[in-house]
Structures are given as structure tokens and as C-alpha cells.
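Is NDP placement plausible here? Inputs below.
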Amino acid sequence: MTETFDSLNPANGDVVGTYPVHGADEVDAAVDRAHEAATWWSGLTFAERKEVLTTWKGVMTRRIAQLSHLVHEETGKPHGDAQLEIVLMLDHLSWAAGHARKVLGRRSVSPGMLMANQAATVEYKPLGVIGVIGPWNYPVFTPMGSIAYALAAGNAVVFKPSEYTPGVGTWLADTFAEVVPDHPVLQVVTGGGETGAALARARVGKVAFTGSTATGKKVMAAAAERLTPVIVEAGGKDALIVDEDADLVAAADAAVWGGMANAGQTCAGVERVYVHEKVYDDFVSEVLEQAGRVRAGSDSQAQIGPITMPSQVGVIASHVDDALARGGRALLGGRDAVGERFVQPTVLVDVPEDSLAVTDETFGPTLTIAKVADMDEAVARANASRYALGSTVFSSARGAEIAARLRTGMTAVNSVISFAAIPSLPFGGVGDSGFGRIHGPDGLKEFTFAKATARQRVKPPMLLTSFSRTAKEDGQLTQLATLLHGGSKTLPKAPRKGLRRSR
Ligand code: NDP
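Reply from A.M.:
I modeled the complex. C-alpha cells:
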């Protein structure tokens, strides 16, 4: 009998669905089927793939209420938040399908002077089958950041959703299969970490992983057995910086939403805030006022839901405990705010920079707020993290300047997490936040390999790549190199003329 596991509603423990635990053999079989599907899918034109993906987008859009409800049940997040992540996903799918040809299709490039007789082209070919290992916090938006772009680039996908959100993953594959019933271009395998590990070891062209840094390392090690490249999107400890001239109400709104929306379970969510000392008190009051109106619960009035992964509650509690034990103060929430399933908004100040609440990913509705003397200190503290996914700056005059100094993959200026909703912008981090990019042209190219072609148009004046090359041609080559790379200041005029004549 097939082993199964239950997907539970984190708000109340109800069973939402029961799914098979797929072992290595089943994962390998899915990947084998995907290779056949990939042959068909990659053989379609960009326009044909766009048509399929657009039809799928329409199916999902028309059933948005159904998918939102499933996301709500499996993650506990409010229906409105579930719908938001789905709408953003649809926008990305649309962009990926619409831009794949322009970004990946064959184009001519200059062959350069030495090889002027050649026609040079580059195109980006699909890798075949992509293994996607997804998280539970945004079970539609996040994995689709890989799936949509991988499909648009001409790959088949085998997707292992988190064991907390298998229903959402299955729904995505089922609706795709309604559009493409004859070819398993998008398949789902369900199970826990072992199933994910089997996918990372399988015969795939690339693994796109989203989750913790620790698991990302395991995935990378497993993929290394076959020299399979990986993308690791591994969360962050994102900072929001508030300059002295910032709109404090807007900055507080961004800090509270960026830190507490989705109960803080956002890889690019705000976890730390650094505020110019001149506006610190006013900013903190504004945050307390706004955050005080946010409540976690399962009723329709609650703005945030439960903590989706039960073990995360312990992590959040340990970060709050550590902050308080080391001299931090909870101006809102605190240890009592951490319940069994729900965590109420918590605002911590005076927290030492080396405490867990500042150094490690909390993934709960908590914020640390610290006072800084100037923006140099704010940038230095923000950049001190080993994570480097996103960041946010609020400043009227110097937003772009401060943003440029932040060593993170993305920065939002005078708004929060906006970069994730712009399909043409790449999304990903550096450091412990991982590497590789989803979204945008980079996200399409991520699921391809570059194919370069040099076609000889006419015979070259000097045949460089042949044993028939003469000493005279070697001399001409030296002169040409001097002309091209010798530096204009020292270049004597005579050889230049000579070379021109000899061409
Ligand atoms: P994990 O990194 O353990 O899980 C992410 C995905 O990887 C899940 O699908 C998981 O499956 C799968 N997985 C687990 N073990 C392996 C393995 N050995 N090989 C391949 N795949 C594997 O994250 P958690 O869900 O346990 O969350 C832990 C922490 O990670 C959170 O506290 C948070 O800080 C961070 N996180 C960051 C996310 C982000 O968006 N960047 C998303 C989720 C978590 P399964 O769920 O079935 O175990």
C-alpha cells in the first residue's frame, strides 16, 4: 500500500487532504516521463508555448477563488493575501510567456573585427527537465517564479511542493494537465524532505530550490552528484532603513506590512529596521500605532493568520527570548504574543546586533527597530548580515543613493517588496540568501543554456584557424593587435595607415 501523509490546516489542525509519499523510484519515473514531454514541449515554437501558457493562465484566473481557498486552508493566510499572491503569479506567468522569444530567441551579435567574415548568433536553449522544490509560505507565487519561467523557456518541470502545501502544488499541475492532457509537461511529486532529496539527485537539468539555507546546502550537495546546477533562494534578514527626511507614516506602514504580512513568513519580508536618530521616536510611535491594529487569528477580520509550520513557533519564541534576555524591550507583543498556533505582532527595541532576532531569520510577525546616528551607520548595519536578499529604503532625497550602497539582490525605495511584483526585475539574493535568479530576463535565462553559433559568411582575408597560416599573416595579426589593443596614445601613425592599406 502507498504510504501517505496529511496536509493540515495550521489554524485548527483539520485535515485538508491526503497525499502519497513518493519515493525515489516514483520521482525517477516522473523525471523520465518529463524528459519525453520536454522533447515535445521544446519542439513547439515560442508562440505555441505562449498560447498554451496563456490558456492555462485563463483557467487559473477563472478559478482564483478555488485556489485562494486552498491556499488559505493549507497555509492559514487570509483569503485576500492568498488572492494577492495568485494575481502576482498570473502577472509573472503572462510576462514570462510573452517575453520568452525576445529574451531567449536567436539573435545576431557582432563578430568583432578579427572575425568579421563570420555571422555570429546566440540563442538560449531549454535545459530539459527542471526540478522545482518549493516552500509553504507562498505556495503559488514562489514556486511559480521558477515553474512559469522554466516552462516559458521550453522545459518540462517536476515540482515537489512543501509537505505543508501539497494540495496547492497538485492543483497547479492538475489545471495544467487540463490544458495539455497528453504530455506531462508539469508534474507534481509529493512527500517530505526525502522526496525533495530524490528530486535533487534525479536526472534533471537544474534544481530550483526555495527554503532554508541549511536545506539549500543539502540540495546542492545532492545535485552535485550529477553536476546538476542549482538555484538556491534561501530567505533573508531584510533591513528597512528610514532616513531623517522620510515620510514616516509611509515608512511605518511599509515596516509593519513588510514585517508582519503573511505573519512574517516572507523570505523578503522586513525583519530589522534602522532609523535615523532624529526621527526615531516619531517613527517608533507610528509603528506601534499601526502594528497595534494588526491581529493574528483565523476569523475574517484578522489581518494575519497562523504560523504555517508548527516548528517555526519555537524559533520565533527563541528569538524573542534571546532578545529580551540580552536587554531588548518589547514595546508591543513579546513572549506572551507567541501562542501555540498564532503569534501576535511584536516590536522589539534595544536589541543587541548579535542577538538571534537580528542575526537569524525569524519568519514571524516581529520587528527589531534600532536607532542609528546617520545613514552610513544604517547601511553598515544592514550590510552586516550574512543574508542579503532584499532591502528597503525610505528617504525623500537620498533613496537611490542609499539603495545603491546596500549589498542585497533587490532594494525597494519608498515602498516595500515592490520589486517582487515587477516581472521584468530579477529576484534572488547573495550570501546566505543563495544565488541564481527567478523573474525577468535573468529568470528566463536561468532555465536555459546559451547556444553560440559562428557561421562563416565569406572567406577570411587571413585564415587564422588553419595550419596554412603564413608568417606574413602572423605579422599582419601583430599589427592588427597593436591597432586594436595597443592603446591609442602610444600608437604610431604609420602602421595604422599601412594596415588600412593592406586590408
Ligand atoms: P526547508 O528548507 O527544510 O524546506 C523547503 C523545501 O525543501 C520543502 O519543500 C522541503 O520539503 C524540502 N526539503 C526538505 N529537506 C530536503 C532535502 N534534504 N532535500 C531536498 N528537499 C528538501 O524549510 P522549512 O520548511 O523547514 O523551513 C525552515 C526555515 O527555512 C524557515 O524557518 C525559514 O526561515 C526558511 N524558509 C525560507 C523560505 C523562503 O521563502 N526563502 C521558505 C520556507 C522556509 P518538506 O516541506 O516536505 O520538508
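Short version: Residues 133-137, 142, 160, 162-164, 192-193, 196-197, 200, 210-212, 215, 218-219, 233-235, 267, 309, 312, 315, 361, 363 surround NDP (CB under 6 Å).
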